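Tutorial handout. Part one gives the primary structure; part two gives the three-dimensional structure as tokens.
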Amino acid sequence: MKITDLQTYVVAERAKHMGRVPWVFVRIDTDEGISGWGEAGCRANGVAGSVAQALDVLRTELIGRPAIDIEHIWHNIYHRYTYFGSRGFGTAIAAGVDIALWDIAGKATGRPIYDLLGGRFRPTVPLYSNVWFDESCTSPETYAAAAKEYLVGLNHSACKLDPFREMRQYHSVAHNGQISQAGEQAGYDIVAAVREVVGPQHEILIDAHGHYDVPTAIRLANNLYEQSNIGWFEEPVASESMEGLRAVREHTAAPICVGERLFTRYDFVPVLQNRLADYIMPDTIWTGGITEMRKIASMAEVYDIPLAPHVVPGGPLELIAAAHAMITIPNFYRLEHAHHLIATHNEMLTEPYVIENGELLLNGKPGLGYEMDEDWLAAHAIEPHEAVR
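Part two.
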């Protein structure tokens, strides 16, 4: 079975709390009439066009290749960008092709992808909820109300938030790594209000977005752990700073989670070898797809470190692909998802995915088990270089 075509779809849709979100999807066709769907990484503002163009260039190189050569094709894409940035740009492109080829392999054998990866280690995929709050959440009281509706009301047992609203403007802007006393206290109050609503057993995870310098990160993590028993403090310092991470790790009582902005197994080596985190959170479409995610998971298993893959604000195929990989491994903790993306995700699919009691239920159909709605993709297409988010 050989590849006959590759098509890219650059789309965007406005999602509650997230603005207008871009996605790049990939469809690979074969000479046996089997097609597979994948999703590529394109999170930064204006990057979707570059990712789509790179995929279009790959099209002629992939035509005629055996669709089952997943590993070899992954490495060819990765090494193609060795002088430009294989870790990040190259892996974001590789992910779209990789997931689509796994989808084809599953459909060709009549099995879900998780069966090709060794079968299920668990029947469902436990989730933690992110983006269960929206623009109306500006105070402890409004966060508490949202927690009651989305977390308690829908039977979730774990959630994530960044309560330090003052710092949101610095998600992708240079900053000195510090926060005002008022902004710090406001964050503590928000987490305390959520804790009161969800109860002592619910896991509250904190995303620091790499905003802080070392002393600030240590103070915030320790205070939140002492006051509200947080489950982890995520990305305490800039992802490039392994020595900063080490310092925080050595002086923090709260568990640490990192990996959203680490792109391959190579990037995770120092984190694992030096025990710099309690959890790691690789992103399926930033690391290169199912192939690389499984390798990272195997490395982490050696160190008894659990995975909790980053997903938000990915599209439905990232969530589903990550679920196929995570349902097969022993060292899995939870998979991220966003309440405010569920409806949009399911509009994109010909069959909706199902979440019950905070767990994702894969449908067991061949491949990914889900198909993209091409009418929806056509209706929401954007110019490749249109800037969104």
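Part three, for discussion. Residues 155 and 172 are 33 Å apart (CA to CA). The mean pLDDT is 94.
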